[in-house]
Amino acid sequence: MDGEQLVAPARPDLRWGLPVFLIGFGSYYLVSLLIAALVPAGDTHSGPLLLLPLSANLLLGAAPVIGSLLRGTGPRADFGLLPTVRGMGVGVVCGAVSVVVGVVLSLAVTHVLHPVSPQIPTGGFSVWTLSYGVFLVVGAPITEELLVRGALWGALAGYGVPRGIVLVFTALVFAFLHLDPPRLLSLFAQGLAIGAARLLTGGIGASIVAHAANNLLPALALLLVA
């Protein structure tokens, strides 16, 4: 049209995501510490209490959603919450890479350090172990991606941090978030693979798919053991 120019839509300013990230991150650890202090560790490995530690994980996603509704334009627009068809494909590929890298590095670290095997839920197969497995594949990818590659990534990008540095830093945060020192290296590498989906598509929808694909293997292993 005469006199008119096509202008690309402006990216949302997500600098408000930094305090939101700190609130979500801090709330997660605070609730996790309270659960650890009030409930004996063995009690959270079976039955209804198996799901109790997951309540802290919900806070990771709650903070970005609330922040987006109050300060932004909603999670779908601010974070690219819903994946496109291409995003789903990118997510599956990045998730597969994450699984391979994670397995290889975990085996290498185990060979060198011989870490103590992590405790897994006990008590046989039940609705609680099934719910736990479903949360690993569906819930955790959504909450963790909202916080790390939604709020934190968006805030860093809003402050002009180069994308490569954002990718590496969020992968490092993702690794430390899990509080599992023997798996720190593999988690960091997996964070890079999952973050690549966010980098390539511009939204967390793809990284949620990658994260879910990555978590599918341990979830299946959990259910098979149960």
Automatic annotation (TrEMBL):
**A Pfam family that the UniProt record links to this protein:** Rce1-like
The CAAX prenyl protease 2/Lysostaphin resistance protein A-like domain is annotated at 128-217
Oxidoreductase keyword on record: no
Q: Taxonomically, which superkingdom? A: Bacteria
Alphabetical UniProt keywords? Membrane, Transmembrane, Transmembrane helix
Q: Where are the transmembrane segments?
A: 20-42, 49-70, 90-113, 125-143, 155-179, 191-213
Keyword Ligase appears in the UniProt entry? no
Name the record gives this protein: CAAX prenyl protease 2/Lysostaphin resistance protein A-like domain-containing protein
Q: Which organism is it from?
A: Kutzneria viridogrisea
